[in-house]
Amino acid sequence: MKIGRLNHVGVAVPDIEAAKATYAGLYGADEATQTKDFPHLGVRVAFVHLANSEIELLEPLGDDSPVHKFLERNPRGGQHHLCFEVPDIVAARDAMVAKGATVLGTGEPYIGAHGVPVIFIHPKNSHGQLIELMQEPA
Ligand SMILES: CC[C@@H](C(=O)O)C(=O)SCCNC(=O)CCNC(=O)[C@H](O)C(C)(C)COP(=O)(O)OP(=O)(O)OC[C@H]1O[C@@H](n2cnc3c(N)ncnc32)[C@H](O)[C@@H]1OP(=O)(O)O
Ligand SMILES: [Co+2]
């Protein structure tokens, strides 16, 4: 298994609309998606489009959100995860398990914000970096 394209960089923020305004006003990155809630994933999400990748802005939905504790520790927000595309998410998951990495949650891929299956690898396996693997969009 070899990771492919960097699909997005996840950035947790306390206020997505304020963050969108910053990327547009300060950096000229003014192409962003509508903000959308994913209650079953515990996050509110918007993507800022870049030439070669995307920034995934994440705001917590509720205290059980996977970004809630992160924002308590980093109240102004911060870089949360990297997401790489893989050609086959089940093969990637099996490769991670075979190499002894910890696949978070149930270990089963689930549908993420792009409508394709994703898994997350614990930060302890990647020098403190939370990694998302995502099935390449068709
Ligand atoms: C929109 C859907 C999807 C997409 O399609 O793109 C997304 O991106 S959703 C993004 C949010 N979802 C997830 O992050 C799911 C996977 N995450 C988790 O399972 C958990 O957040 C976690 C990574 C296991 C952390 O759990 P949590 O209970 O929040 O952590 P603790 O506070 O107990 O911390 C444990 C340990 O982990 C370190 N940590 C936590 N978050 C991160 C992070 N983002 N990057 C690096 N390290 C992180 C934390 O510092 C603790 O370390 P130690 O103190 O050394 O134990
Ligand atoms: Co993500």
TrEMBL record:
Gene Ontology molecular function terms on file: lyase activity; metal ion binding; methylmalonyl-CoA epimerase activity
This protein's record includes keyword Lyase: yes
InterPro entries: Glyas_Bleomycin-R_OHBP_Dase (IPR029068), MeMalonyl-CoA_epimerase (IPR017515), MMCE/EMCE_epimerase (IPR051785), VOC_core (IPR037523)
Gene Ontology annotations of biological process type: L-methylmalonyl-CoA metabolic process
Gene3D superfamilies: 2,3-Dihydroxybiphenyl 1,2-Dioxygenase, domain 1
Keywords: Lyase, Metal-binding
UniProt xrefs under Pfam families: Glyoxalase_4 (PF13669)
VOC domain boundaries: 5-136
Protein name per UniProt: Lactoylglutathione lyase
